[in-house]
Design brief:
The complex is a heterodimer of chains A (296) and B (542). Chain A is built from 14 helices and no strands. Chain A has 296 residues and is mostly helical. Chain A has a single domain, classed as Orthogonal Bundle (MetI-like fold), CATH 1.10.3720. Chain A starts with a helix and ends in an 11-residue tail after the last helix. A five-stranded mixed sheet of chain B has the order 2-1-3-12-4. The chains are: A mainly alpha (296), B alpha/beta (542).
């Protein structure tokens, strides 16, 4: 009896601690949602904790009011899907190649690839390169420069090197070539690494705003994050302009939107899609697909 | 068969992709570096012929919305003047975007920049269109700025390349910086005299004794500015930023001035006695705003903008308001000669037409019109025909009665709509017109900000044209000295404030003086004095 009671007690303590830790992690995010649903000027008074004090949709209304939002969202989705797909495809193929012992000059390829991780020409040479490749003001500026990631390549390579050699040999014995081996054998059993890197790359692509700010002037090609940056800056600018023009200083007193409230609404609008995608990828992190594939 | 087909497909696809990437890199050499050469288009008729150009302003917080979309002002300009402007947004990458434009010579038609060193580089690199000839044809700018300011604008080759934005050329003072007092607290404590630092000290002591939860004194920005100016009549507030003060044609170290030392020691005294917010150095501006909106600050050294922004909450939360007072000063000084603001004829930044512009004359004609009373009236009071039809003998719009029925906030939203606002401000006209409109406005509808500015704040502002561009560029030797002294000063200001006795504060101050001398203050002030004297020469002053 004593043993069962102490088990229960221990379990309760563990659950309580874990719940507390989860709440500590979730609370800041929850607080930002609450701020995004609260009037900006009321938020500035402080004390917003669990629930909005002055509930409003105005922060989201301003974000969604911009007619460029739908186009920007489309661009973001396309660049995330195509950009992620292209990067994962080319990076994984490269990593598979350099993971094979029999590849000639593989050290050279590795060093050449790793160099790009440590050394960069800087902003202006990058711009000149992009311009020379005729990618300025085109959708492909989001895809082509990001088609290879040295960091992801290293992760893929480490994973592929640990795959049982016997599995790949058996494929060769059955007559599979390199491509067949890669796409039909290696990729299916590398679920965890592909899922992880697809998620990280997708989040990177989704959050990217810099390319849209630097390489794109056509407003129909800017992604969501760049547009949201403009919306937030515009609200600040609107307030600053009234101050400087001096003809509508009272507007500041009547204004309820603040840069902070707008930023939180913008943050939430861009985070939701990623949160929705994550559960579909989660199952690939868990378990392995290799169980039962080889009898040692 | 299947296996080789699959392999072949993949190989072909990869080969095609790689080839297209390689070929796109080989095709052509891209845009040539020199940009388009522009010929003066003397057949261009402004307001009739179509004018289209791009405009980039190197600030993240400048509106760059699509032109003439849901904006009465911009739609009126487009319809009546046949003008289309493509505002290029900085999208959070201002500075970097400008560097790229300069390096790749892909400049917009109009560029707006604040940093004088960058402007000078652009002038010297011949990236800009000289405006002299256009100024003689379209004369609003030339006639209002006057010879001395035009001289200040001239580049080293004698040409004028830039138009000052928000320049206060008429020499009428303006600004926002002021002392604000919590009206309810002030009344409850018997409305004592609040003119000298002694008055302030006594008032703050009373506040501390009577309201334990209230912060007696807070500051938005640098408190040392308010203190330094209070110890010296006709001070230039930005001596604090320049680390020097003018004596004739020389610049002396600010740190060796009694007024500055007295100001710093007073800050230390206030801090030691708990009259300043304890976390004044560490708290964020959000926390300051929270305190203000909750009505928990008795005296605030800030500006009318902040006051206007927070008055609503002061009323709601604390049944109070802000009261602007004349600058607090040392006993014996004339309170009406204490200056908390500076203003300059060359304004905040400059607008330039680049060599890439296809129609520089057309663009200048538009900018010259924008600077004119009509242009400023359209942007500030709405398109012609809405709230005004004509300008009076003073060039101000004759406003219809409907204008005074709405609040300024409503009018502003209505006339600007989703537009990007006016990027070229004629401050002297705007301020003059604001006074004219203020006098016409019924008393109960008058702007609080304008009331404070006309009654007090604009009387506490000093001209500072001689100091234009004196601070050295960060890449130069003097710039490095300037930054080192700035770093030493930041540290010293904190040490002086936190000192536990006046003797310790004084010792920390003396250490700052010695350190600034060691870091090269003499060279710095000589460099800045040379620049100041160059400006004086251009202005025709001594």
């Amino acid at each position: 009896m004593k043993k069962i009671d102490s088990d229960k007690a221990l379990r309760l303590v563990i659950y309580a601690v874990l719940t507390l830790v989860c709440l500590t992690i979730i609370y800041p995010f929850w607080n930002l949602i609450v701020i995004s649903l609260n009037t900006g000027t009321d938020t500035a008074r402080g004390g917003i904790m669990m629930w909005p004090r002055e509930f409003t949709w105005e922060n989201y209304k301003l974000v969604f009011k911009d007619t460029r939002l739908v186009t920007a969202a489309k661009i973001s989705v396309l660049k995330t899907v195509i950009g992620t797909g292209a990067q994962i495809l080319f990076t994984s193929i490269f990593a598979y190649g350099v993971s094979r012992r029999e590849l000639k000059f593989k050290n050279f390829y590795m060093k050449y690839a790793l160099l790009t991780m440590y050394v960069s020409g800087g902003l202006i040479p990058s711009y000149i390169l992009i311009r020379t490749l005729h990618l300025i003001n085109t959708f492909w500026v989001y895809v082509v420069p990001a088609m290879f990631s040295a960091w992801n390549m290293v992760i893929f390579k480490s994973f592929f090197e640990n795959l049982p050699e016997g599995l790949l040999e058996s494929a060769k014995i059955d007559g599979a070539g390199e491509y067949m081996t890669f796409f039909k054998i290696v990729v299916p059993i590398s679920g965890p690494v592909f899922a992880s890197l697809i998620l990280f790359t997708a989040v990177d692509q989704w959050n990217g705003w810099f390319e849209g700010a630097i390489y794109i002037t056509n407003q129909k090609l800017i992604p969501l994050q760049t547009l949201l940056k403009q919306i937030i800056s515009a609200n600040t600018a609107g307030q600053l302009m009234d101050q400087v023009s001096g003809t509508a200083a009272e507007k500041l007193a009547e204004e309820t939107l603040t840069s902070k409230s707008l930023s939180t609404a913008a943050m939430f609008v861009t985070t939701i899609p990623i949160i929705m995608v994550y559960p579909f990828l989660q199952k690939y992190f868990v378990g392995g697909m290799m169980v039962g594939s080889i009898k040692e | 068969m299947k296996r080789s087909k699959f392999r072949g497909l993949i190989s072909t696809a990869l080969a095609v992709i790689m080839a297209s990437v390689v070929l796109s890199g080989c095709a052509g050499s891209g845009k040539s570096g020199g940009g388009k050469q522009t010929a003066e288009n003397s057949n261009f008729e402004f307001k009739k012929d179509h004018l289209e150009f791009s405009w980039y302003s190197d600030y993240n917080d400048v509106l760059a919305n699509p032109w003439a979309v849901d904006s009465p002002t911009e739609e009126w300009i487009k319809e009546n003047f046949n003008v289309d402007i493509n505002y290029i947004p900085a999208s959070g990458a201002a500075g970097q975007k400008l560097s790229i434009m300069l390096a790749s010579n892909e400049l917009p038609d109009v560029i707006q920049v604040g940093d004088s060193q960058t402007i000078k580089k652009m002038e010297d690199s011949k990236l800009l269109q000289p405006l002299d000839d256009y100024m003689n044809k379209y004369t609003n700018l030339r006639d209002t700025l006057g010879e001395s300011i035009l001289n200040m604008l001239r580049a080293s080759d004698g040409h004028i390349y830039r138009i000052p934005n928000w320049g206060n050329y008429a020499g009428k003072p303006n600004g926002n910086t002021c002392w604000l007092v919590n009206e309810k607290v002030y009344k409850d404590l018997g409305e004592p005299a609040l003119e000298t630092f002694d008055d302030l000290y006594n008032f703050l002591k009373k506040v501390k004794a009577t309201y334990p939860d209230m912060v007696p004194l807070e500051c938005k920005g640098q408190l040392e500015k308010y203190m330094y100016c209070g110890f010296k009549e006709e001070a230039n507030v930005d001596d604090i930023v320049r680390f020097t003060t003018r004596k004739g044609n020389e610049l002396e170290s600010l740190f060796k001035q009694d007024e500055y030392k007295k100001g710093m020691l007073l800050i230390n005294k206030f801090y030691r006695e708990g009259l300043l917010a304890k976390d004044i150095m560490a708290r964020t501006s959000d926390q300051l705003e929270e305190r203000i909106r909750a009505g928990r600050i008795a005296v605030l050294a800030a500006d009318t903008t902040f006051g206007e922004k927070t008055r609503g909450d002061m009323k709601k939360q604390a049944n109070s308001d802000w009261k602007v007072i004349w600058p607090i000063h040392e006993k014996g000084l004339d309170g009406k000669k204490i200056m908390l603001n500076e203003f300059a004829s060359l304004g905040f930044n400059s607008i330039m037409i680049t060599k890439n512009a296809k129609n520089p004359e057309g663009i200048f004609a538009y900018l010259d019109w924008l600077w004119s009373p009509e242009g400023q009236a359209v942007y500030n009071y709405g398109p012609k025909g809405l709230y005004w039809d004509e300008l009076n003998e003073n060039t101000y719009p004759v406003l219809k009665p409907e204008y005074f029925e709405k609040s300024a906030a409503e009018i502003s939203k209505e006339i600007r709509g989703s537009g990007s606002g006016c990027r070229l401000g004629n401050t002297s006209w705007v301020d003059g017109c604001a006074k004219y409109v203020y006098d016409l406005t019924p008393e109960n509808k008058r702007s609080w900000t304008k009331t404070q500015q006309f009654n007090i704040v604009w009387n506490t502002s000093k001209k500072a044209d001689e100091y234009t561009d004196v601070i050295p560029n960060s890449n130069s030797d003097e710039g490095v000295t300037y930054q080192s002294i700035a770093d030493a000063k930041s540290e010293a200001v904190a040490k002086i404030m936190y000192a536990e006795s006046e003797a310790e504060a004084s010792a920390n101050f003396d250490a700052l003086v010695a350190e600034s001398d060691r870091l090269g203050m003499d060279n710095l002030r000589k460099y800045m004095a040379d620049k100041m004297n160059e400006n004086l020469k251009k202005l025709g002053e001594k």
